[in-house]
Amino acid sequence: MNADLLKQIIAAGMDCEHITMEGDGRHWYATIVSSEFEGKRAIARHQRVYATLGNKMKTDEVHALSMKTFTPAEWADQSV
Asked: Following CA atoms 15, 16, 21, 26 in sequence, which dihedral angle do they give, to the nearest 10 degrees?
C-alpha cells in the first residue's frame, strides 16, 4: 500500500475536498476534509473513513491509520 493508492481508495468511497496522507507503508497519518462530516462527531467521521477501506484494515493491508477530519468550514478556519 502506498499513499497515493490509499488516498484514491478514500476519495472513491466518499466526497473529499482535500486529503493528505503520510506514512511508512504500514502506519499512516491522514488529514481529510469532507462535507460528509457535517454534524458528525469525531468517532462517526473516523468510522466513515474506515468504511471506505473495507477489509483493508482487517487484512492488515493498512495496519494503522490516524486521522484528522474536518468539514470545509473547519478546514477554512484552520487555514487562517
From this structure: -20
Element (H, E) at 29: strand 27-33
Q: In the CATH scheme, what is the code of domain 3-78? A: 3.30.300.90
pLDDT digits (tens, 9 = 90+) for 5-32: 999 999 999 999 999 999 998 899 999 9
Cell of 17: 475536498
How do the domains of the chain map onto residue ranges?
A: 3-78
Burial label, 59 (beta-carbon count in 10 A; 0-12, 13-18, 19+): exposed
pTM: 0.91
